[in-house]
Amino acid sequence: MSLSITSPYSFWVSLDKTGASHGYVAAGGPGFDGPIDTLGSLAYKKVAASMRN
Predict the structure, then answer these.
(1) Number of folded domains in the chain?
(2) For residue 2, what pLDDT is reported?
(3) Do residues 28 and 43 make contact, with C-beta atoms less than 8 angstroms apart?
(4) pLDDT above 80 for 7
């Protein structure tokens, strides 16, 4: 099987307006408060704000 002719994609449905998945964020990441994504797009805004300071 070859992966050279595929088009990877990903999506999820969220009940939260920020798009939070409420799932595990694996290795974490900047902006997340813990191992579960409860912030959605707010995590990116949090990081952007901290980089301006």
Answers:
(1) 1
(2) 60
(3) no
(4) no
